[in-house]
Structure formats: structure tokens, C-alpha cells
Amino acid sequence: MPGLSQAEKAQKFLSLHRGPRILVLPNAWDVSSARIFEDAGFPAIATTSSGIANSLGFPDGQHISREQMLEVVERIANAVSIPVTADMEGGYGTTIDAMAETARGVIAAGAVGLNLEDSPEETSGKLFDIPLQKEKIAAIVEVGKKMGVPLVVNARTDVYLEKIGAPSERFAHAVERLNAFREAGAASLFAPVVEDAETIAALARAVRGPLNVLARAGTPPVRELEKLGVARVTVGGGPMRATMGLVSRIAGELRDQGTYNLMLENLMPSDRANSLMLKRRGKSN
Predict the structure, then answer these.
(1) Model confidence at 13, in pLDDT bands (50, 70, 90)?
(2) What angle is formed at CA 276 by the lines to CA 275 and CA 280, rounded to 5 degrees?
(3) What is the pLDDT of residue 283?
(4) What local confidence, expressed as pLDDT, does residue 264 receive?
(5) Considering the chain, what is the average pLDDT of its residues?
(6) Which domains, from first to last, does the chain contain?
(7) Which of 33, 158, 184, 221 could form a disulfide with 134 if both were Cys (CB 3.0 to 4.6 A apart)?
């Protein structure tokens, strides 16, 4: 999308959540993965917090700082011409001021949206209170308005991920939280770790905004998700971990057999890799 301002990219990104087709949003963790996704024709890119954290030598779950995360987000946003939305975990703080600072950082990095979780950290078994989370979302949206970049907030609830409450109560709890986040100004509503078609369809009917699901083992294919009413599907850290899995197998083959077959079978030619980076810098067509 050459020539679009950051505000125009934000508006374009928001429009992608309104159909008529489902928004398939791949998650990048560095410049090379972002360029590959852009070159493949995707209309926008998300970042993956777990992928970025792992690539920097940290586990997932807010173990890196806001500044470390935004540094990579900025590199990615500068490397592509399409909209970028940033996975900012829980926002790197618990106060409204911290959320505002995160929002300002996202805009300064060149991104047009952000993902905000409602748990202090993964595996904590806890969620932030709904009123506080609504205040956080509203503060982020307000920063976007003041800075002239209408940030597209993807508000995530970890009811299913953290197994909050009895299984029979999780659907109603997730819907309550997601609809509250929508009232606060979230443009997209994210319920990860839900993969059965019946629950996904019910969520799409019950939440009062575009539903985002995470592609993982057991998740229906994209076209089925579209029929179920899903507006947006992301892949999270999956591509990054798949890359790590491939490298692990390459390492094992090299160590045990002294051969390079896996590497050679999956190799991107150097001229192709260089071409992707040259395009990014405007040095080739």
C-alpha cells in the first residue's frame, strides 16, 4: 500500500475486519518473515509476541520489555508497505498511564493496531477485572484519536486459555468480557484456544463485534471459519515455532547423519532472499 499515511493504513486495516471475506492475518517475528508474508499477498500483518520473545532469547509471557518489543515492531513496520498490528501482550503495565504509553509507542513504531490480553501473564490462572480492562482499552483508543491514528484494538480474553471457571461457564464468561471490551472501543474480539466449530459459531453470533480466532491443531480451515462467522484468523507463534522445528530437525540430521537433505529441500535460494530485502528498500521491482 505505497503512499498511504499511517492513519490511512489504520482505516484500511479496520475495513478488512468488515468483510466481505475473512481477514487471514499471518504473524511475523522479524523483517524476513514480514517480507515473506507481504510478498505472498497478505493485505496486513500481525506480529507475534511469543515469536519475537523467543527470537530474542526469552520465553513468552511478558518476559521482555515494552521497548524491546517495540524495537522489533518498528523494524517490521518499516520493512513493509501494508498495515502492521502489534501483539503487545498485556500492555506492559497494569495502569491506565502504562496503557497510554504503550499505545503511543505502538504509533511511534509505525503500527496501526495492537493486541491486548486480559491476563497478567499466561498460566497465571487470573484475569484483570472487567472495569479495569475497559478503562485500559478506552485509554488506548483515546491515545489513537489524539495522535490521529485510529488504533485497531484486538481485545483478547484468556477465559479458555487459562481455563477460568467450570467448563460449562466459560462460554458465557468469555462473551461477557468480549462484549464489555467492545463497549470500551475494541475493534476486534479475540478468543484463543477455541477450536471446535460449534463453539466458534456460537461465539461469532454472541459477540457484538468481529471475532478473531487462533489457528492451531483442530481449528477448522479458513473457509469454514468464514462460514461460521469469524471475521479474523491469526496464526500466532505457529510459523515461528514451525521454523524452530525445522531447524531442530536440520540440526539432528547434520549431527547424526552428517547430511544436509532437510536443509537443501527447504532452502530459499539466496537470490530470492536478497530480492525480498531489495524490494523492501525500493531497489528493485
Answers:
(1) very high
(2) 110
(3) 39
(4) 97
(5) 95
(6) 6-236 (3.20.20.60), 238-285 (no CATH)
(7) 184
